[in-house]
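Researcher: Here's the sequence for the chain we discussed earlier.
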Amino acid sequence: MTGGVSTGVSCAVVLCVGVAAWLMVVQDHGRRRARALFVDGVDRSPLRVRWERAGARVLGRVRERREWLCLPVVLVVAVLGESVLPLLAGAVAVPLVRRWLRRRAQGRERERRAAGVVALCGAVVGELRAGHEPGQALLVAVRGTGVMGAAEAGVSAAARFGGDVPGALRQAAREPGLDGLAGVAACWRVAADGGAGLAAGLDRLAGALRAERRRREELRAQLAGAWSTVAVLALLPVLGLGLGAALGADPLRVLLHTSAGLVCLATGGLLEAAGLYWAGRIVRAGEAA
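Model: Thanks. This is the structure I predict for it:
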Protein backbone atom coordinates (compact mmCIF):
# COMPACT_ATOMS: atom_id res chain seq x y z
CA MET A 1 0.00 0.00 0.00
CA THR A 2 2.92 2.31 0.73
CA GLY A 3 4.26 1.73 -2.79
CA GLY A 4 0.91 2.74 -4.26
CA VAL A 5 0.85 5.93 -2.21
CA SER A 6 4.41 6.79 -3.27
CA THR A 7 3.55 6.13 -6.88
CA GLY A 8 0.48 8.31 -6.59
CA VAL A 9 2.62 11.08 -5.15
CA SER A 10 5.10 10.65 -8.00
CA CYS A 11 2.35 10.88 -10.62
CA ALA A 12 1.01 13.99 -8.90
CA VAL A 13 4.47 15.55 -8.93
CA VAL A 14 4.90 14.80 -12.64
CA LEU A 15 1.48 16.26 -13.39
CA CYS A 16 2.29 19.41 -11.38
CA VAL A 17 5.60 19.85 -13.20
CA GLY A 18 3.89 19.52 -16.58
CA VAL A 19 1.13 21.99 -15.64
CA ALA A 20 3.70 24.47 -14.31
CA ALA A 21 5.73 24.26 -17.51
CA TRP A 22 2.60 24.75 -19.59
CA LEU A 23 1.55 27.78 -17.56
CA MET A 24 5.03 29.28 -17.75
CA VAL A 25 5.41 28.89 -21.49
CA VAL A 26 1.93 29.22 -22.96
CA GLN A 27 -0.11 31.32 -20.61
CA ASP A 28 1.99 34.47 -20.74
CA HIS A 29 -0.29 36.42 -23.09
CA GLY A 30 -2.75 37.35 -20.36
CA ARG A 31 0.05 38.41 -18.04
CA ARG A 32 1.57 40.65 -20.72
CA ARG A 33 -1.79 42.24 -21.43
CA ALA A 34 -2.50 42.83 -17.74
CA ARG A 35 0.98 44.33 -17.30
CA ALA A 36 0.40 46.63 -20.26
CA LEU A 37 -2.95 47.77 -18.88
CA PHE A 38 -2.21 48.16 -15.18
CA VAL A 39 1.55 48.29 -14.67
CA ASP A 40 3.23 49.97 -17.65
CA GLY A 41 1.61 53.27 -16.89
CA VAL A 42 3.02 53.35 -13.34
CA ASP A 43 6.49 54.68 -12.53
CA ARG A 44 8.84 51.83 -11.70
CA SER A 45 12.27 51.81 -10.16
CA PRO A 46 15.31 51.07 -12.38
CA LEU A 47 16.03 47.93 -10.36
CA ARG A 48 12.54 46.60 -11.00
CA VAL A 49 12.83 47.40 -14.70
CA ARG A 50 16.13 45.50 -14.90
CA TRP A 51 14.64 42.49 -13.12
CA GLU A 52 11.63 42.50 -15.45
CA ARG A 53 13.87 42.72 -18.52
CA ALA A 54 16.04 39.89 -17.23
CA GLY A 55 12.95 37.77 -16.55
CA ALA A 56 11.61 38.56 -20.02
CA ARG A 57 14.91 37.45 -21.58
CA VAL A 58 14.89 34.21 -19.59
CA LEU A 59 11.27 33.49 -20.57
CA GLY A 60 12.11 34.28 -24.18
CA ARG A 61 14.95 31.75 -24.17
CA VAL A 62 12.69 29.17 -22.51
CA ARG A 63 10.02 29.71 -25.16
CA GLU A 64 12.62 29.33 -27.91
CA ARG A 65 13.69 25.96 -26.44
CA ARG A 66 10.40 24.67 -25.10
CA GLU A 67 11.16 21.14 -26.25
CA TRP A 68 13.76 20.83 -23.48
CA LEU A 69 10.99 21.08 -20.88
CA CYS A 70 10.42 17.39 -21.57
CA LEU A 71 13.65 16.57 -19.74
CA PRO A 72 12.64 17.79 -16.23
CA VAL A 73 9.44 15.75 -16.46
CA VAL A 74 11.18 12.54 -17.52
CA LEU A 75 13.92 13.18 -14.96
CA VAL A 76 11.34 13.26 -12.17
CA VAL A 77 9.78 10.05 -13.50
CA ALA A 78 13.21 8.41 -13.78
CA VAL A 79 14.12 9.31 -10.19
CA LEU A 80 10.80 8.23 -8.73
CA GLY A 81 10.64 5.10 -10.87
CA GLU A 82 14.34 4.28 -10.30
CA SER A 83 14.90 3.54 -14.00
CA VAL A 84 16.75 5.04 -16.96
CA LEU A 85 14.01 4.20 -19.44
CA PRO A 86 12.19 7.53 -18.95
CA LEU A 87 15.44 9.34 -19.78
CA LEU A 88 15.71 7.41 -23.04
CA ALA A 89 12.09 8.27 -23.81
CA GLY A 90 12.84 11.94 -23.10
CA ALA A 91 15.84 11.87 -25.46
CA VAL A 92 13.52 10.58 -28.19
CA ALA A 93 10.75 13.05 -27.31
CA VAL A 94 12.90 16.20 -27.53
CA PRO A 95 13.48 16.15 -31.33
CA LEU A 96 9.88 15.10 -31.95
CA VAL A 97 8.54 17.97 -29.86
CA ARG A 98 10.99 20.36 -31.54
CA ARG A 99 9.72 19.27 -34.95
CA TRP A 100 6.10 19.70 -33.85
CA LEU A 101 6.77 23.19 -32.45
CA ARG A 102 8.64 24.19 -35.62
CA ARG A 103 5.71 23.00 -37.75
CA ARG A 104 3.30 25.04 -35.64
CA ALA A 105 5.50 28.14 -35.94
CA GLN A 106 5.68 27.69 -39.71
CA GLY A 107 1.89 27.41 -39.87
CA ARG A 108 1.48 30.64 -37.91
CA GLU A 109 4.00 32.36 -40.17
CA ARG A 110 2.11 31.21 -43.27
CA GLU A 111 -1.13 32.58 -41.85
CA ARG A 112 0.56 35.89 -41.03
CA ARG A 113 1.95 36.18 -44.54
CA ALA A 114 -1.39 35.28 -46.11
CA ALA A 115 -3.04 38.06 -44.09
CA GLY A 116 -0.22 40.36 -45.19
CA VAL A 117 -0.98 39.67 -48.86
CA VAL A 118 -4.58 40.79 -48.31
CA ALA A 119 -3.31 43.92 -46.59
CA LEU A 120 -0.89 44.49 -49.48
CA CYS A 121 -3.72 44.36 -52.01
CA GLY A 122 -5.73 46.83 -49.98
CA ALA A 123 -2.74 49.16 -49.62
CA VAL A 124 -2.02 49.11 -53.37
CA VAL A 125 -5.68 49.83 -54.13
CA GLY A 126 -5.65 52.76 -51.72
CA GLU A 127 -2.48 54.20 -53.24
CA LEU A 128 -3.82 53.80 -56.78
CA ARG A 129 -7.08 55.54 -55.93
CA ALA A 130 -5.07 58.31 -54.30
CA GLY A 131 -3.49 59.03 -57.69
CA HIS A 132 -0.12 57.25 -57.48
CA GLU A 133 1.46 55.33 -60.33
CA PRO A 134 1.22 51.51 -60.08
CA GLY A 135 4.95 51.06 -59.46
CA GLN A 136 5.02 53.72 -56.76
CA ALA A 137 1.84 52.34 -55.19
CA LEU A 138 3.32 48.84 -55.03
CA LEU A 139 6.58 50.16 -53.61
CA VAL A 140 4.79 52.02 -50.80
CA ALA A 141 2.55 49.01 -50.04
CA VAL A 142 5.48 46.59 -49.92
CA ARG A 143 7.34 48.82 -47.50
CA GLY A 144 4.25 49.33 -45.35
CA THR A 145 3.27 45.68 -44.98
CA GLY A 146 6.69 44.00 -44.90
CA VAL A 147 5.40 40.47 -45.51
CA MET A 148 7.60 39.38 -48.41
CA GLY A 149 10.75 38.71 -46.45
CA ALA A 150 13.71 37.89 -48.69
CA ALA A 151 11.66 38.52 -51.86
CA GLU A 152 10.94 42.13 -50.91
CA ALA A 153 14.17 43.42 -52.45
CA GLY A 154 13.42 41.95 -55.89
CA VAL A 155 9.83 43.22 -55.97
CA SER A 156 10.86 46.67 -54.75
CA ALA A 157 13.62 46.92 -57.35
CA ALA A 158 11.25 45.90 -60.15
CA ALA A 159 8.63 48.43 -58.99
CA ARG A 160 11.17 51.26 -58.60
CA PHE A 161 13.10 50.83 -61.85
CA GLY A 162 10.32 49.63 -64.14
CA GLY A 163 11.39 45.98 -64.27
CA ASP A 164 9.35 42.80 -64.65
CA VAL A 165 6.96 43.34 -61.75
CA PRO A 166 4.71 40.31 -62.52
CA GLY A 167 7.78 38.06 -62.75
CA ALA A 168 9.09 39.35 -59.40
CA LEU A 169 5.67 38.81 -57.82
CA ARG A 170 5.44 35.25 -59.17
CA GLN A 171 8.92 34.56 -57.80
CA ALA A 172 7.84 35.86 -54.39
CA ALA A 173 4.65 33.74 -54.54
CA ARG A 174 6.79 30.60 -54.29
CA GLU A 175 7.51 31.31 -50.63
CA PRO A 176 5.18 29.74 -48.03
CA GLY A 177 2.11 31.84 -47.31
CA LEU A 178 2.58 34.20 -50.26
CA ASP A 179 0.49 32.23 -52.77
CA GLY A 180 -1.85 35.19 -53.20
CA LEU A 181 0.92 37.17 -54.88
CA ALA A 182 0.41 35.00 -57.97
CA GLY A 183 -3.03 36.59 -58.28
CA VAL A 184 -1.49 40.05 -57.86
CA ALA A 185 0.97 39.21 -60.66
CA ALA A 186 -1.90 38.10 -62.90
CA CYS A 187 -3.84 41.32 -62.24
CA TRP A 188 -0.70 43.34 -62.93
CA ARG A 189 -0.09 41.52 -66.21
CA VAL A 190 -3.69 41.99 -67.38
CA ALA A 191 -3.63 45.68 -66.45
CA ALA A 192 -0.31 46.22 -68.26
CA ASP A 193 -1.26 44.27 -71.42
CA GLY A 194 -4.95 44.93 -71.80
CA GLY A 195 -5.49 48.27 -70.07
CA ALA A 196 -7.87 46.85 -67.46
CA GLY A 197 -8.26 48.63 -64.14
CA LEU A 198 -5.61 47.39 -61.71
CA ALA A 199 -7.36 48.79 -58.64
CA ALA A 200 -10.63 47.00 -59.43
CA GLY A 201 -8.86 43.70 -60.06
CA LEU A 202 -6.83 43.89 -56.86
CA ASP A 203 -9.96 44.84 -54.93
CA ARG A 204 -11.75 41.72 -56.17
CA LEU A 205 -8.65 39.62 -55.45
CA ALA A 206 -8.49 40.92 -51.88
CA GLY A 207 -12.14 40.02 -51.39
CA ALA A 208 -11.53 36.50 -52.67
CA LEU A 209 -8.50 36.04 -50.41
CA ARG A 210 -10.46 37.30 -47.39
CA ALA A 211 -13.29 34.87 -48.16
CA GLU A 212 -10.82 31.99 -48.44
CA ARG A 213 -9.23 32.96 -45.13
CA ARG A 214 -12.65 33.04 -43.45
CA ARG A 215 -13.39 29.56 -44.78
CA ARG A 216 -10.12 28.29 -43.33
CA GLU A 217 -10.89 29.85 -39.97
CA GLU A 218 -14.38 28.35 -39.93
CA LEU A 219 -12.97 24.93 -40.80
CA ARG A 220 -10.33 25.27 -38.08
CA ALA A 221 -13.03 26.16 -35.56
CA GLN A 222 -15.09 23.12 -36.59
CA LEU A 223 -12.05 20.86 -36.22
CA ALA A 224 -11.13 22.22 -32.80
CA GLY A 225 -13.34 19.59 -31.18
CA ALA A 226 -11.56 16.83 -33.08
CA TRP A 227 -8.15 18.09 -31.98
CA SER A 228 -9.43 18.24 -28.39
CA THR A 229 -10.45 14.59 -28.70
CA VAL A 230 -6.95 13.73 -29.92
CA ALA A 231 -5.45 15.53 -26.91
CA VAL A 232 -7.75 13.69 -24.51
CA LEU A 233 -6.78 10.36 -26.08
CA ALA A 234 -3.12 11.26 -25.64
CA LEU A 235 -3.66 11.91 -21.92
CA LEU A 236 -5.61 8.73 -21.22
CA PRO A 237 -2.48 6.63 -20.42
CA VAL A 238 -1.38 9.20 -17.84
CA LEU A 239 -4.83 9.08 -16.25
CA GLY A 240 -4.61 5.29 -16.27
CA LEU A 241 -1.30 5.43 -14.38
CA GLY A 242 -2.82 7.78 -11.83
CA LEU A 243 -5.83 5.51 -11.38
CA GLY A 244 -3.56 2.49 -10.95
CA ALA A 245 -1.51 4.32 -8.36
CA ALA A 246 -4.68 5.34 -6.51
CA LEU A 247 -5.70 1.68 -6.37
CA GLY A 248 -2.30 0.70 -4.93
CA ALA A 249 -1.04 -1.15 -8.00
CA ASP A 250 2.31 0.73 -8.15
CA PRO A 251 2.27 1.01 -11.97
CA LEU A 252 5.74 2.57 -12.31
CA ARG A 253 7.41 -0.39 -10.61
CA VAL A 254 5.42 -2.87 -12.68
CA LEU A 255 6.08 -1.12 -15.97
CA LEU A 256 9.76 -0.33 -15.44
CA HIS A 257 11.04 -3.32 -13.42
CA THR A 258 9.16 -6.41 -14.65
CA SER A 259 9.32 -8.28 -17.93
CA ALA A 260 5.56 -8.25 -18.41
CA GLY A 261 5.48 -4.56 -17.59
CA LEU A 262 8.19 -3.76 -20.15
CA VAL A 263 6.31 -5.70 -22.81
CA CYS A 264 3.10 -3.84 -21.93
CA LEU A 265 4.98 -0.53 -21.92
CA ALA A 266 6.48 -1.11 -25.38
CA THR A 267 3.21 -2.37 -26.84
CA GLY A 268 1.21 0.46 -25.30
CA GLY A 269 3.72 3.05 -26.49
CA LEU A 270 3.55 1.76 -30.07
CA LEU A 271 -0.26 1.67 -29.99
CA GLU A 272 -0.36 5.16 -28.49
CA ALA A 273 1.92 6.54 -31.20
CA ALA A 274 -0.03 4.76 -33.94
CA GLY A 275 -3.35 6.01 -32.58
CA LEU A 276 -2.16 9.61 -32.32
CA TYR A 277 -0.70 9.48 -35.82
CA TRP A 278 -3.88 8.03 -37.24
CA ALA A 279 -6.16 10.52 -35.47
CA GLY A 280 -3.93 13.43 -36.45
CA ARG A 281 -3.86 12.28 -40.06
CA ILE A 282 -7.66 12.09 -40.16
CA VAL A 283 -7.99 15.64 -38.80
CA ARG A 284 -5.29 17.01 -41.14
CA ALA A 285 -7.03 15.34 -44.07
CA GLY A 286 -10.19 17.23 -43.09
CA GLU A 287 -8.23 20.48 -42.96
CA ALA A 288 -6.67 19.85 -46.37
CA ALA A 289 -10.05 19.10 -47.91
